[in-house]
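Thread: Modeling a multi-component assembly for a lab meeting

Hi all, long-time lurker, first post. My supervisor asked me to bring a structural picture of a complex we are working on to next week's group meeting, and I have zero experience with this. I have the sequence lines for every component (560 residues in total). Could someone generate the structure of the whole assembly? Inputs are pasted exactly as I received them:
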Amino acid sequence: MELKAQILCAGMPGRGLGLVLDAPISFWGGVDPKTGRIADVRHPQHGASVAGTVLFLPGTIGSSSASAVMMELVHSGHAPAGLVMHQPDAILLLGFLTASEMGWRPPMAVKLDKAHHALFSGRDVTLHEDGTLAADIASA
Amino acid sequence: MTVHLNGEEKAIAAGRDGDGAAMAMRLVAETARLMGAPRLIPVASAHIDGALYHGDSGTLFAERLVEGGARVSVPSTLNVGALDLTGCSRQRLGEHERAMARRMMQGYLKLGCQPTWTCAPYQAGHRPAAGADVAWGESNAVAFCNSVLGARTNRYGDFLDIACAIAGRAPAYGLHLPENRVARFVFDLSGAPDAFLADPSNWPVLGSLYGRMAGDAVGVVTGVTAHPGEDQLKAFAAAAASSGAVGLFHVAGITPEAPDLETALGGNAPDEIIAVTAAMAQDARKRLSTAAGDRIDAVAIGSPHLSHEEFIALDRLIGGRRLALPFHACTGRHALEALVRSGLKDGLEARGVTIVADTCVVVTPIMDAVEGGVLMTNSGKFAHYAPGNTGYATLFGSLADCVESAVAGRPVFAERPAWN
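Re: Modeling a multi-component assembly
Sure thing. I ran the full set together rather than chain by chain. Output:
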């Protein structure tokens, strides 16, 4: 299965397990910048790690420090392998833009309507340089 | 979508004023492209949330700007750091983290920011005029700045806030544009009894409910007949910006862009009217607590940072008694100076209050690591962030409940004005 998504931020193409969040998240306070683990106890996917996944976000909430957490995840090697957003979020994506200015090679961020996110849940997902999201059906 | 930069902006982005100014301008321009802003607009001031240590990357970024010769071009206040530089409280940070956090704070001072170190800059003299375009970070400050002051800012994330402060510009989109400041939904509190709205502890509860229902939409609160007070609007804004992505709300008859409901709605019919019920308010209050039972290990108040008036209320509530539990009262230097001047500081500390300045208990390790610990708070924002950031479960109560519980060493809740 393949879907073409709109590129928000150019970055490293990547491959990882599709992690589709069921609820919006605040990266600051919601994700541990040292490990990528979802630390928000009220989040339905509390305990899962975003590190190395192709992460599908239905939305973001909360703190304006999300960009700092995202940049730290890139710098420490615990960033998602790809980021798929329902709509661009200036705060979160700024973590990638700043990491890029610093020369730390962030992953790509693309835009895809959240109606399509569930298709990629739990699958081996590749985010290609042209914004194509590919999932291996057999791995589902 | 392309963003149009004028000649001056292009020259700065290309390095005319040095590498630091160039990087800042490029970040502002890239964000403008991302958010579909056609151009940049000048800003009158900035509030910088980026000086809080989350890891070495942020320190290295600040130092890159300093090395590149960057300076802020508009008055810029600083949000909290990871260290209490006043020495009032101690942080449990390792040697490396402490050194990097200090370097980061010093970096932002070298860029020309003011050492306010507070999440309530609007109570530390930084109050832009209604209608002014500014670039603020820190979610509660953004919501307060837009809603209560009527100045215009988007929710600028860490790094973009300092980039805008250096560039003196922000992308022209979102809440800078009057058409995006119009309310789309109504949050109707007319069912709430006056006594309920007069209880300060209900404002973070209502803010938390509002934020969850609003997401990032602009709404207008109706049914508030008496001004709840600035500290209550502060608590509402902070809770709303924690549970949702709230950058602006109106309160009809109270906030500057909502002289009445019709004006707040821009003459349009609302997309939705949320009639808040007693059951919704009760549920929202319950959600602020993740613990239940007889245990309590510590109390924390002051998110956003306490005002001098809130310290006076705290002092009165404690009276001549001593607190039996660790009690953290977080504030900024503006209120700390007033505390010292008024002679209240020593008395509060002698009765067991730990004053935390420049920082707070959910952004840096201050509270003891306690297995299964329970934290009581009157802050909707602390209630939201404490479990993830500190490991403490939360119990939400009024300021009086916090004091009585800290005196008794167990949770004590007073009767509250009923809403049935």
